[in-house]
## 1
Amino acid sequence: MKKDPAKRHLGEVWQTLAGPPVVSLTGGFAMKKVWHRGSENGWYLTIRENGHRRQLLLVKGPNTREFRKKAEELAIAELATRKVDDCPSNPSWLLVHHVLDGFLKHSLEEHEPKTHDWYKGFFDTFEPKYGKLRVVQLKKQHVMAWVTARGFNDTSANRAIGALKRAFAWAVEEEHISRSPIDHLRKPRTVVRDRVLTPEERQLILASIRDAQFRDYVSALSLTGCRPGEVVCVTRDDVDLEQGIWVLRKHKTVKKTGKPRIIYLCPDALALTKRLIAQHTDGPLFRNTRGRPWTKNAVRLRFTKLRKLHPELKGVVAYTYRSSFATDALEQGVPDATVATLMGHTNTNTLHRFYARLSHKVEHLKEAAAKAIPPAKDAAPPDTAP
């Protein structure tokens, strides 16, 4: 019989009943893992009955794997004679790092490498201080102390807390624990970047970039509305010049949609693509001055320098081009369903929630308001009859 991969993630910790969950029983019973008493040379099971602890001898024998397995089987048989409550408690022996490490192994198999690394980046700073806490001891105050110590803003705190909550939710889904100790913890609202580029700002940015490599990268962001990470990943094999599209088979939402991400190229974007294909016959099309693919940190630093050089560009990051693309398209009268498709969304909810910034287009909205009011009919002459 194939071993359950979810249990395999926690290694020795999750061997069938080698560390069984605490089980609450009707009448106030609770069970911990089986354990060996050397002085009695026997395996025991501890239960709690109406507030009193009881130690049940399961089998006499040495502290070996063979007898441990036998004790576990007897423990299961013992529990089978009792009616298990619908609200079991969490294992008292389980540590926080068991859950986090197990989830990371699950993530390594099920998620993209970038997603796994994203989770790991948060857990690597949480585990050193709180990893040895028992799950039953983990409190809101521990998580909030970590968030404060790290100096996270609201957006980063939202993501950090979300990463922890996801790990414990996974443990609940896989029935390693009965409930998450931080399920009730609320995340702060993320700060939505409320920024749209003007034509003048676009020209200023391009004029301030000295190297052609970064200028090409920024131009691609502006012309396609892609996620910054998508532009970085485009290779010669992803390009269909005949249809004028990029086809990304590995992308952010591939597991959700099950479909490739298709990026439709306008004439300028297609001309840029053809030029880069002539320069790079294989590998990524968009590369830095050293011929290497752009990294997330390198792009971040370049935009940081641009904001320092031009303070009026405050708030401008790589993703600003994506929200600007969506807003400009809507202003030009492109239907929102079409814009959502161009952005790679399955519906219009994400478009309007995170990217559309028509509130910045004052003149456009004033014109729309004028169109929304039907023209007044000529007033009838007043009745002058006596």
## 2
Amino acid sequence: MTGKGVVSFQKEVTDANDPVGTGRERPVTVPVMVGEPARLGPDDSTLIGRSLTAAEEFAAVFDRHASAVHRYIARRIGTASADDLTAETFLIAFRQRQRYDLSQPNARPWLYGIATNLLHRYRRTEVRHYRALARTGVDPVTEPDADRVVARVAAGAASRRLAAVLAKLPAGERDVLLLVAHEELDYADVARALDVPVSTVRSRLHSARKRLRAALADLDPRAPEGA
């Protein structure tokens, strides 16, 4: 059920498995609700495995993760494009579900990886978003505990300066930093999301944190020196 302020999407996808044996592709309508994610039921790998022969099972993956994916995208490029990009993320996930590693019970890193790849088409939009945040200090998806980096420093000037640094970071460093700081993924999950070695995650995060420390040192003198 859609609550106040919740965005809902509806897309038609094609199930090529033809479970009803008609010899034709069967359209499957899957609603994507951006609200509170479902927490109960089988793990994601079970649902995705079932969806290979019963496409409607994939709807539970949408219900469970759409809110987090939408928030991740909106924080990076703003809310205007987040709805469509969230829907596209899940459509791609549905079409590529045969490739999912069923040994992984949590699909969220996989979904973040798809979303991150799509976001690369919006790099200019993302940079403009952070520059606007740097000017105004207003984050359209503010959460009290979303970013551990911001939490360590004063909200006003520090948030604007943080946004300015994010706008200048190389895309790979920004991807890693936001998946760790905003989405609270561990290094292994970030590596899986971005399809890079854990060593690359560590290197990019170290570099991004170094830039952040340099920019925010006067505001957060207690910031740790290690990666």
## 3
Amino acid sequence: MILLLRLSYLCSFLKLSGCKQPINPTPMSYKIKTLQEAEKKLGELKESRKEDVFMIAVPEDDQGQTLAVGFIKNPNRSVLSQVMSLMLSNDVVKGAEVVLHSCWLEGDDRIKEDDQFFFSAINVIDQVISFRQAIIKKK
């Protein structure tokens, strides 16, 4: 019951935010487990999508030999608008969650659903949001 509520919340959120659902919804047991496999998949995704793709890799255990891997794209303007609103209201975790869910392409769903993996992933999510420095001059 709780899983169905989470799925319906996510689907309604994605529709409201104007974001499309992930291209390849993935099962819990995602195939990629090593950094080499993940980097290869990152190159394939970047080439096929013709846009920036980011890899998030979270160690499954303290040894870090196997990974939970997810791939996300750059957030669009509407996603950034939602994120900035949440950040201004001091809800940083929700802002990172919006980026993660809205920009998710494929990967191990534990990164989105399991708190241990989720909080590890959102520690690096700010690296996805980058801006160029504009110049303004007045005479």
## 4
Amino acid sequence: MTGIIKTDKLQSSAGNDALTIASNGGVTVAGAITAAGAITAAGAITAASTLAVTGAITASAGVAIGGTGAANTLDDYEEGTFTPTDGSGASLTFSTAVGSYTKIGRAVTFSLHVIFPSQSNANNAVINSLPFTLQNIGTGYTALAVYTNGGAFGAVTYQNTTYARMHNTAGASITNANLSGKYLRLAGTYYTS
């Protein structure tokens, strides 16, 4: 049997207004809301105290933090893995090639580990297939942390690309031959568009 109850307030057993329905359709709850299933709201849900959620929250339009403008809206979060590849043009196959990343908004933090094959190729060493394209503005260059058994050098990403190039301390490119049989670990944070 179904029915309709027309009311604008429900009271708790103690006589307090526990749920109030305003004339505009808004609902105010004076205590906790417990739901075994989904709670769907077409408008805003406002909590005057801490909002505790034990399941997932899906916010397809993003989450506004500290304001409602676009600059205050976190609209992307992602974690994942990727496979770094040779970007030098030498078609090298790394014996190990693993990477992981976390993307929060436009900031991408990643780490990767590759092992170069034994070879004597003179092309500049380039690691390709970073998980997202770097932003296409003048500050699109990012220095990365480098850990290797192939000598002292640095790595830099370039705007509007998905690769990192290795350079020695004088700024000259490191070649594939310099890294023959060596491991390379890169880590850093860059911004995407």
